[in-house]
Amino acid sequence: MGERVSRAERTHPERFAPPSHGFAWLRMIGALVVIYGHSYPLVSGNDMFPPEWPVQPDHGLLMGFFAMSGFQITGSWVGDPHPVRFAAKRVLRLWPPMLSVSLFVALVLGPLVTTLPSAEYFGEQRTWGYVVGNTGMVTLRHHLPGVFANNPWDGSVNGSLWTLPMELIAYAGLWLLLLVGAARRRSRWLAVLALVVLVVVDRRMAHAPGPDSPGSLLSVPVEPLLSFLVAFAIGVVLRLYSVPRSPLAATAGLLALAAMPMSEATAFWMTLAVSYAVIVFGHHWPARASVPGVWVNGSYGVYVWAFPIQQTLVLAGIGNQWVLLALAAPIAYVAGTLSWRFVEEPTMRLRHYIAPRRAPGTAPAGTVGPPVDPASAQREDPPTEPIGSPPSVPVEPPEERTTPALPRVPPSGSGEGSRLPEPPDRSRG
Description:
Number of domains: 1
InterPro entries: Acyl_transf_3_dom, Acyltransferase_3
Protein name: Peptidoglycan/LPS O-acetylase OafA/YrhL, contains acyltransferase and SGNH-hydrolase domains
Radius of gyration: 21 Å
Region (Disordered): 359-429
Number of strands: 2
Order of helices and strands: HHHHHHHHEEHHHHHH
Structural class: mainly alpha
Strand order of the largest sheet: 1-2
GO molecular function, one term: acyltransferase activity, transferring groups other than amino-acyl groups
Keywords: Acyltransferase, Hydrolase, Membrane, Transferase, Transmembrane, Transmembrane helix
Helix content: 55-70%
Largest sheet: 2 strands, antiparallel
Number of helices: 14
Strand content: under 5%
């Protein structure tokens, strides 16, 4: 039997946009909400939410994005279960925007706003350490010499990037899981097993006695990594199994979350409710709200460019969070759209050279469900072409990236803090 969908999707498919477009809308909205979430801390130097809260709204937003990412890139494997091509697609999606913003910030913006003379700035080891560390993605640096040093949020250049190594680790874990056959019908229980293991370890860590954090893996704080991997794994399982996608159930889950008291149990329920809800709402995005893809495909660019834009505006004298939001949101939106048009879309088109040739209406061996017709595949399997892309070029949708939310990074070896862009190696600058 093929993958079951909700009654609404079976009876009125014309009411809903392709899931890739629904996910694109959700990601863009989330990316703009992140700008709001960063505005208060960047002008005040204080956290937006009390760090002792077990339920952090910014974490809930981020978990939703990880769930969408797990759902969509699992669909990419289902459509083309080839290990090398799968890895190449992930690199082509994740790395170019990260590289472009890091090089621009270090080599163009940094020299313009640093308090140091240009010769001293370029002679600093930290300048080139920022370029090399961020290019490698798993050894991030968050500070450049003299850049934003006097801003309220003490010198972090692009604190938003701290979640990208987590995404890379999630991709690598899923690649290994799929490599052993988790996408095949007879072996997909492996995905459920991985989810259960992540939940058990995450819950044990959440209830572990003592104030100390479990620390960091390279530049990745372990505790939030585990909680976000749970959301990612939920997305994977929802793609491999025929779980009904009910808007009523998704809405009820979110309402129950809003009514629950602040507790660790509520924090776990947030992971489940938000992860399920974003998958459901992505599949039920109204068709009448569809727009050209270029309008909403730039959410990844909005996310990686917004933080340095906000810090630059604060440096220019903006001290009110609402003014900062009003100025930064449209600038970041334009930057994200340009990033999509001139960085992400061109590099994603390189997939054309590694994509398999397959007759329309056929499905590769080992995938879940029988072959489907092209029309239903367009609606049900997000990793096809994004809206607005030429039909002759096989490009995966831009939404398989996680657009992360307001970070909470504990310094290495300390209790779980909540300073937004704090890297584990802060003491080394």
